[in-house]
Specification:
There is one protein chain. This protein is an alpha/beta fold. It has helices spanning about 20-25, 70-85, 100-110, 155-165, 195-205, 220-225, 240-250, 255-265, 275-280, 285-290, and strands spanning about 5, 15, 30-35, 45-50, 55, 85-95, 115-125, 140-145, 170-175, 210-215, 230-235.
Length: about 300
C-alpha cells in the first residue's frame, strides 16, 4: 500500500505527498477524469493588484519562467504520466493562460489526445490593470481533452443544458474568482473557485468516479469531488498546501458546512437543487457504498 499524507474518514479523499510524475510511477490505476492546474510560469517579477494593494507576481520558484523547450519537456512528462493512469474513455482538463496553454496543447496532440473544447473562463471580478497600457486580463483557458481519438467520452449534456436555462452551454463560462469564504483554511496563490471545479466534475463524470489532480494545491478539486459524491486522489509536494487541503476536507465532516457549500453552489447556478435530506447527510453515509470497493486501489 502506498503511504498517504491524509485519508478522509470515508476514504473518498486522499492526499499523497511527492512529485506527480515520480508518485504516479509507483502504481497502476485508471482514473475516470483528471483536472490539472500546472505551473503557468508567469512569476517573472511583474506586478498585480490584490486586496487593494499592488503586489509582485511571485507565486514561488515552481512558477518561474522557463525556456520554451524546458516548458515543453515539463508539460510532456506530467501529461504522459497522467495519460498512463487514465481509463480508455477518460478525459483531462488543464487550465492555463497564454504563458503555458499553447505548450500544453501541443503536448496533448503529441500524446494522441483528442481536444474537445477550450473553455474560456471569463472572471466576473478580475483585478484592475494597473499600468492602463493594455486591456485588463480577465480570462483563463481550460483545455478539455479525451484520452482516445475513437473511444467515446462522458458528457452530461442534459444537466449542463438544464443549468443554463434549457439552452446549450457554450465554451465561455462567466464565473467569479475565489471568494473569501473559500479561504477559510488559508490562501493558495493559484487557488481555483469551487464553482469552476463543480461544473467541470458534473459535466464529465458520474457519481462514484475517480478523479486525479496531479497539482493538488489547496485541494479544491477534491473538495468539489467530495461534495458531489466522487472520489479523489491529490498529489502535492508542498507540506503547507497539504495541511491546508486536509483542513478543508475536515471542514466537510460538519453537515452544516457541507450544506452551506452546496447552497452557495446552488445559488451560483453550477449545481442542481439538492434535496435537503441528501445535502445534510454526513459524507460517510452518502459515499460509503461506492468506496467499499477498495480492492486494487493502491492508496486504500
Amino acid at each position: 500500500m502506498i503511504p498517504s499524507f491524509y485519508k478522509s474518514p470515508n476514504r473518498d479523499f486522499t492526499l499523497l505527498q511527492g512529485d506527480c510524475v515520480e508518485t504516479l510511477s509507483k502504481f497502476q490505476f485508471g482514473f475516470d477524469m483528471v483536472f490539472a492546474d500546472p505551473p503557468y510560469f508567469l512569476s517573472g517579477g511583474g506586478i498585480s493588484y490584490q486586496s487593494g494593494h499592488v503586489v509582485c507576481v511571485d507565486k514561488g520558484d515552481w512558477d518561474k519562467p522557463k525556456t520554451p523547450e524546458e516548458m515543453d519537456q515539463f508539460n510532456y512528462r506530467w501529461i504522459k504520466a497522467c495519460y498512463d493512469h487514465m481509463k480508455p474513455d477518460a478525459t483531462i482538463w488543464i487550465s492555463g493562460t497564454y504563458h503555458n496553454i499553447f505548450s500544453v496543447q501541443q503536448q496533448l496532440i503529441k500524446l494522441g489526445f483528442k481536444i474537445l473544447n477550450v473553455i474560456t473562463w471569463a472572471k466576473t471580478n478580475p483585478p484592475p490593470n494597473i499600468s492602463c497600457r493594455y486591456f485588463t486580463y480577465s480570462t483563463e483557458f481550460i483545455i478539455w481533452a479525451r484520452k482516445s481519438l475513437k473511444v467515446p467520452h462522458y458528457y452530461n449534456y442534459d444537466l449542463m443544458r438544464h443549468l443554463n436555462g434549457d439552452k446549450q452551454m457554450t465554451d465561455v463560462w462567466r464565473l467569479p474568482a475565489i471568494a473569501k469564504w473559500e479561504k477559510s483554511c488559508g490562501k493558495h496563490p493559484t487557488q481555483k473557485p469551487l464553482a469552476l471545479l463543480a461544473r467541470i466534475i458534473l459535466a464529465s463524470t458520474k457519481p462514484g468516479a475517480w478523479i486525479l489532480d496531479p497539482f493538488s494545491g489547496s485541494g479544491t478539486t477534491g473538495i468539489a469531488a467530495s461534495l458531489l459524491d466522487r472520489r479523489y486522489l491529490g498529489l502535492e509536494i508542498e507540506q503547507e498546501y497539504l495541511e491546508m487541503s486536509r483542513a478543508r476536507r475536515e471542514e466537510l465532516e460538519s453537515s452544516a458546512t457541507r450544506h452551506d457549500y452546496l447552497h452557495r453552489l446552488e445559488k451560483a447556478g453550477v449545481v442542481p437543487m439538492q434535496d435537503d435530506l441528501f445535502a445534510l447527510k454526513a459524507p460517510a453515509d452518502r459515499v460509503r457504498e461506492e468506496v467499499d470497493d477498495s480492492y486494487g486501489v493502491p492508496w486504500l
